[in-house]
Amino acid sequence: MAAPLRIAKRLQLAGGGPGLALTRSAFFARKRVYDQPNWVGVGLAFTTSAALWAFLFKQHNEDIMEYERRKQQRERKCTGCS
């Protein structure tokens, strides 16, 4: 029974304990400035969104064309010959 407790204590000491999980990183410690938005990040977000929507519409149109092509092929098949 004492062996598992020793192993648990060793792991807790090696991991630094729960105190390190609650510390803040130096990269996020400063206050945000809301008066000056990050326009590069805003532009990148909107551009990415627009590109994904354009790809979605393009893919949808290609899927509709493929559906119509296969639908026409099914109608042309000769069912009486087989």
Structure description:
It contains 2 helices and no strands. 63% of the residues lie in helices and 0% in strands. The model has no long low-confidence stretch (mean pLDDT 81). It is flat. It has 82 residues and is mainly α.
For this entry, give a set of tags.
82 residues; mainly alpha; 63% helix
List the helices and strands and how they pair.
Elements: H1 2-15, H2 39-76
The stretches of 5 or more residues where confidence is low (pLDDT under 50) are: none
Query: Average pLDDT across residues?
Result: 81
Give the overall shape, derived from the CA principal axes.
flat
The rounded Rg comes to 30 Å
Secondary-structure element order, as H and E? HH
- Number of continuous helical runs: 2
Structural class: mainly alpha
Q: What does the main sheet amount to? A: none
Strand portion: under 5%
Number of beta-strand segments: 0
Care to give the gist of this entry?
The protein is mainly alpha-helical and 82 residues long. The chain contains 2 helices and no strands.
